[in-house]
Amino acid sequence: MKYISTRGQVSPTGFIDAILMGLADDGGLLVPEQIPQLSSDTLKQWQRLSYQELALEIFSLYIGDEIPRADLKKLVDDSYATFRHEDVTPVRRVNNGLHVMELFHGPTFAFKDVALQFLGNLYSYVSKKNNSIIHILGATSGDTGASAIEGVRGKQGIRICILHPHQKVSKVQELQMTTVNDSNVLNLAVEGTFDDCQRIIKELFADVEFKHQYHLRAINSINIARILAQTVYYFYAYFQLANQGHTEKVNFSVPTGNFGDIFAGFLAQKMGLPINKLILATNENNILARFVNEGVYQPGEFKGTYSPSMDIQVASNFERYLFYLYGEDSGIIATLMEQFKTEGSITIPGDVLQRVQSTFSAYSVENETCLDTISEYYEKYDYLLDPHTACGVAAADKLMADGEITVALSTAHPAKFNEAIELRKIEQTYPKQIQALFNKPQFQRVVGGSNEEIKDQLVKFF
Ligand SMILES: N[C@@H](CCOP(=O)(O)O)C(=O)O
């Protein structure tokens, strides 16, 4: 399989070079040259596979023979052996039509572990095999950072620097990142928002000379490996329901910030998974919900919410979706992204908007509704939702029709966001791994948001 850029200025490249490139060198995002198409027979054959077996099949389609199957199997098995649940991403029925897929059974209690345990092991494999230098630079609104650090801490040949917005992540998220004292980890707390952190890393990756000189690698969802790994659980959820006798198409409701997770669902649908609606749930930072409902992509004013991981204005993976929306025409995408840079917005015509709405439904969840949903599900169903999952569940409640089956993606464990949970006077017991964080010293440097200052830190660290 080869990978091409959404902006068309990069020669088709193999899987390993694509993951090492991260952001495409022309500033676009890498996508597979062709999306594999699955027959209904293949779907039937996959229906009873374990999570690990399924991941191996899906990764093989996108990696081809670049990694021998036995090596790939070991990477997959090692990556998911760290999960606390034997199903890796179990699906639980909560009420009639609503199921929750728990994606938080990995080491840092968030869905990011599903891809970042794998990517961490993959980087280590590539570093040993090809003698590649792996200097990771990432931005986080809380979950990606902890998960990426956990995926590579202490690993030979790898260094990681994570930028997070100072005091705009939850206490547990901050502790998960900053209590790590391995010498290959650097945490920079940036005075600004997640969008500032993401803009900085994208600008540094776009500085191709700097990127190559310092061997910068990405762990955010700009890296195509993240998307591919997240595609697996859409299939797995569908198969778990099919094994219980649900043969109809399924809706997925996805708490959305950077558009990576829901894009993975979109990719699964394009591969042939019978998905009905993709429900896009935002918090009050609702640029994506406005896009789906009105056809205008324009950042609004930043709002701090109870779901800080989704406090994002400019969604990284939106460009990948635009590429498919516009028939894989990289010329149009390059023009639209240039327009976004100069004018600050993209408006799509009515016929294109109709195509968007045939795939996505969207709802923007207000702060109070998020908390109300947490209370309601706790009282009625004895199920404690984290505030991001609560946004997904609130959107599903709003947008699913009677008789439909919806899987809401539960993206994090509630213990990561007690700031929101305690507002509703709900007392939760922390898992022991989270409780232990409160007694540890923290290691982080607070920095301003200039590219030069970050570059300076990186040069010293790498
Ligand atoms: N919500 C994310 C933001 C970064 O998104 P990513 O999927 O591109 O890594 C976070 O928790 O850091």
UniProtKB/TrEMBL annotation:
Pfam family membership, one: Thr_synth_N
Pathway participation: Amino-acid biosynthesis; L-threonine biosynthesis; L-threonine from L-aspartate: step 5/5
Coiled coil region boundaries: none
Recorded catalytic activity of this chain's protein: O-phospho-L-homoserine + H2O = L-threonine + phosphate
Cofactor: pyridoxal 5'-phosphate
EC number in record: 4.2.3.1
Keyword Glycosyltransferase: no
Keyword terms: Amino-acid biosynthesis, Lyase, Pyridoxal phosphate, Threonine biosynthesis
Domain Tryptophan synthase beta chain-like PALP residues, every copy: 87-405
Domain Threonine synthase N-terminal positions: 2-80
Top-rank EC class of the record's enzyme: lyase
NCBIfam families referenced in this protein's UniProt entry, alphabetically: thrC
Family, per entry: Belongs to the threonine synthase family.
Function: Catalyzes the gamma-elimination of phosphate from L-phosphohomoserine and the beta-addition of water to produce L-threonine.
Protein name per the record: Threonine synthase
